[in-house]
Amino acid sequence: MSVESGDSPELLAAAAPLPERRTRLQSAWRALKKAPITAWFGLIVVGTYVFVALFAPLIAPYGEAQVVGDQYMPWDNQYLLGTDQIGRDMLSRLIFGARNSIGIAVLTTALSFSIGGFLGMLAATLGGWIDQILARSVDILMAIPQLIFALVLLLIFGSSVLNLILIIAVLDSTRVFRLTRAVAMNVVVQDFVEAARLQGEKLGWITTREILPNILPPLIAEFGLRFCFVFLTIAALSFLGLGIQPPTADWGSMVRENATLINYGDITPLLPAAAIALLTIAVNFLVDWFLHKASGLKE
Question: Per residue, what are the HEC states of 49-70?
Fold first, then answer.
């Protein structure tokens, strides 16, 4: 549709977004076509995991906690990956484990970024004694090994999913705080931030409109890396019995529950471990590619 020179500004504004969206999609597709094989591998693997997690009830042949046979039945046409220690289908547990493990890890990482990112920008923007109190508090928390601290807190408050998310998010937010504060410190001294302050803009405007857009690339890359660490932490806690509790399917607890099969040469317990490793590798490949694109370096 053509726009005449006499058309109103409202009509011009309404007609503009569609070409802009097309341009963005085209540039994104061009970037994907130039992406290395590792980035494509990561994208395909992550997309497959997300698809399985979203449609787990439709894909899984049996229910998440449904007992369908005897203990430790071998692989066959009915049970493609056999059964576990109480007769649940391992393939179904793996599929539902994708939903639980990935979903909880994403929620935890998002919460840790909300806490750490907000406090990091607040410390960098305000400075002074607020910055010192927040920075020293984070240093104290980071001095304690995260896994041990999480184990102690889960023993005290219980191993519910809510406690698991809150405890890991708070502990992991210390790493997000340090990165956010470091990159925001380089932005708050820029002239456009000082100009916003002189214009009387409020703290919320300065942080969300002036600082945040200029520190997004490293934060997005850090989100992928922190997701991997959170994902592995939840799996480790579940393996130790203090993470996601049964009968909820979780890859970490599935390794522990079926570990005795390794003594008989059965690789079934290694399947959830392989699922954890494959997702971690794929996310790291995507993060590496994004960091390379954000840096502006040529191939």
Answer: HHHHHHCHHHHCCCCCCCECCC
